[in-house]
Amino acid sequence: MIKTFNEVLNTAKTQGMKTVAVAVAQDAPVLEAICDAKKNGIANAILIGDSEKIISIASKIGMNIEEFEIIDEKNDKKASLAAVQLVSSGRADMLMKGLVDTATFLRAVLNKEVGLRTGRQMSHVAVFEIPGYDRLIFLTDAAFNMYPELKEKIDIINNSVQVAKACGVDLPKVAAVCAVEVVNASMPATLDAAMLSKMNERGQIKGCIIDGPLGLDNALSEEAAKHKNLGGPVAGKADILLMANIEAGNAMYKCLTYTTEAKNGGLLVGTSAPVILTSRADTPETKLNSIALAALVAEFNKASQKK
To answer: 191 exposed, middle or buried (CB, 10 Å; 0-12, 13-18, 19+)?
Structure first.
């Protein structure tokens, strides 16, 4: 089981170079991340966008642009579609968003002809290496699904389980996190949590162990779980934190990012190939971590298809 981002990077290196298609690649922070990924032996890149601007930015940041293929396309919509098509056709293993607005980028991802649809709900998985914890923590969904209902939460769990397994967690422990650890008919999230737990118990959701509702404290702390007499394999030992909605997830994400020394990376999954959707506020380290995570998920998907 991978426990740190150093292990994520090292494992990605051993699995061989992947190829990432970058949509609207004329963006300095993204090109810096692509350079880092290539230097670390994790991924090569095909850069789609305004070739003159890409070459100009590459020169300013000391990037040897001759090492990368460039496809000249000045229109953002066409560049996004071209990047998606490279992935759906198998020329690239994963997709990365460059200097393009998220709505335009996602429309390309969902394109009916060349997009990366699977029929599952797409969701965001953030992965954290938190000082003091002996494992990676997978947080979902902090960025994409606003107020998911039970059906969407099943897909969100399955998507996060895929990422956890790609990181070597054989049987991920999923905590359906709520404000309280008891079912309360006035709190819909606790009802969803209880149903998800029961569905998992009956084999309707496979490949993981789900418990909930659990408070955040007794999902992460064995001591807190003991104080409330909560047993079972998940309490205090959760790998995946399924948050009730985007507000809880996003607050948790930003709290970990800005008040701790945690390292992180994130992906959009539920697609036929991993999608790297980083923020301009993300550090170069976070962007590199996200590319490495995408490489692991791409390799895991490839291995799963062969079985």
So the answer is: middle
Same domain, 58 and 177: no
Per-run averaged pLDDT (10 residues), the chain, 307 residues: 96 96 94 94 97 96 95 97 96 96 94 93 97 96 95 98 97 97 96 98 97 96 93 96 97 95 96 90 89 97 81
Residue 268 inside a domain? The answer is no
The DSSP letter of residue 66 is G
Query: DSSP letters of 192-255?
Result: HHHHHHHHHHTTSS-SSEEEEEE-HHHHH-HHHHHHTT--SSSTT--SEEE-SSHHHHHHHHHH
Question: In DSSP terms, which residues pair with 151 in a beta bridge?
Answer: none
Question: Residue 152 is which amino acid?
Answer: E
Decide if 184 contacts 190 (C-beta within 8 A): yes
Residue 243 vs residues 34, 126, 187, 264: alpha-carbon distances, Å: 31, 12, 14, 17
CA trace torsion 70, 74, 75, 77 (10° rounding)? 20
Q: In this predicted structure, what is the pLDDT of residue 305?
A: 78
Place of tokens 């960025």: 143
Which domain covers residue 55, as residue numbers? 5-115
What was the pLDDT predicted at 278?
A: 83
What per-residue confidence (pLDDT) applies to 307?
A: 67
Q: 149 and 199: one domain?
A: yes
Distance of CA 251 to the CA centre of its chain: 17
Do 138 and 109 belong to one domain? no
State the pTM of this model.
0.95
List, in sequence order, every residue forming a beta bridge with 269; answer none if it has no partner: 123
